[in-house]
């Protein structure tokens, strides 16, 4: 099973990459542990799948992405990443929040993808920011973006503000760890029960009956 993690953090170390790593570890742990007791049977039930994780740091691809917009096509390195995302069974996408929305680098990368690259693909969306006030950017910016790309986005989106890294919680809000685990479980369930890819049947060539034969058959039917 191929899982691609796209992270748009700009600094090193990056809280965006840290959140991506926590989500990846949680999803991998859920998949390799197998289906929970009482779960419905699905196409991937049985032996736990081996998870092949590929992490994509968009910071390292910034120049390649810009050149793709100028030249009209991605270079070899960016093309390999695009193919990896397209062929992945699932995707984790994490961005920092700037001015109440995803970063320009994050959006530019997904603009490079073909419009059908994420069709039907399970996606977990997440973001980091300095304040919890920007958490709704996941719902008004990221979720519509992936809905437009026809991806299947898990119900729980994970936002980590600066204060979340202490692991605290109050009476009204789940802690970051709980949100990570819940979102990871949702993505793992989608991946585990995702229908296997089937080749589309080839179109049967249409038989064209010459007009003369159609006219002759019509005359014979009237007699």
Automatic annotation (TrEMBL):
NADPH-dependent FMN reductase-like domain: residues covered: 1-165
Keyword Lipoprotein: no
InterPro entries per UniProt: CE1759_FMN_reduct, Flavoprotein-like_sf, FMN_Rdtase-like_dom, NAD(P)H-dep_FMN_reductase
Entries under Gene3D superfamilies matching the protein: 3.40.50.360
Superkingdom assignment: Bacteria
Record's keyword terms, sorted: Flavoprotein, FMN, Oxidoreductase
PANTHER family: FMN REDUCTASE (NADPH)
Official protein name in the record: NAD(P)H-dependent oxidoreductase
Organism: Nonomuraea antimicrobica
């Amino acid at each position: 099973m191929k899982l691609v993690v796209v992270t748009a953090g700009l600094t090193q170390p990056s809280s965006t990459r840290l959140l991506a790593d926590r989500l990846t570890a949680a999803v991998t742990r859920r998949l390799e542990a197998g289906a929970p007791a009482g779960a419905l049977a699905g196409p991937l039930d049985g032996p736990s799948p081996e998870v092949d994780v590929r992490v994509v740091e968009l910071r390292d691809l910034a120049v390649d992405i810009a050149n793709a917009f100028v030249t009209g096509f991605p270079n070899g390195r960016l093309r390999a990443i695009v193919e990896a995302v397209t062929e992945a069974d699932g995707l984790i996408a994490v961005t920092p929040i700037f001015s109440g929305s995803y970063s320009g680098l994050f959006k530019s990368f997904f603009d490079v993808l073909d419009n059908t690259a994420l069709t039907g693909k399970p996606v977990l969306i997440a973001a980091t920011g300095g304040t919890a006030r920007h958490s709704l950017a996941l719902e008004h910016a990221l979720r519509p973006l992936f809905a437009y790309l026809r991806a299947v986005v898990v119900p729980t989106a994970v936002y980590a503000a600066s204060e979340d890294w202490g692991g605290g919680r109050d009476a009204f809000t789940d802690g970051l760890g709980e949100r990570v685990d819940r979102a990871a479980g949702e993505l793992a369930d989608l991946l585990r029960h995702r229908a296997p890819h089937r080749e589309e049947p080839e179109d049967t060539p249409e038989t064209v009956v010459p007009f003369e034969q159609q006219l002759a058959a019509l005359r014979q039917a009237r007699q």
